[in-house]
Amino acid sequence: MSGVTTIAIASWQPQVSESATQSHARAIEDGGVLALPHLGFALLDGERRFLDPSWSDGRAKNISLDRGEVRGTRAQGADRDALRDMVARFAQHASGLVAALFPRYAPHVKTARTSFRPQPASGRPVSWRKDDTRLHVDAFVSRPNHGERILRVFCNVNPDGVDRIWRVGEPFDAMAAHFLPSIRRMRAGESALLAALFITKGRRSEYDHLMLGLHDAAKADIDYQRSSAQQEVRFAPGTTWICFSDQVMHAAMGGQYMFEQTIHLPLAALYDPARAPLAILE
Ligand code: SIN
Ligand code: FE
Question: 19 CA to middle of ligand 1, Å?
Answer without folding.
Answer: 30
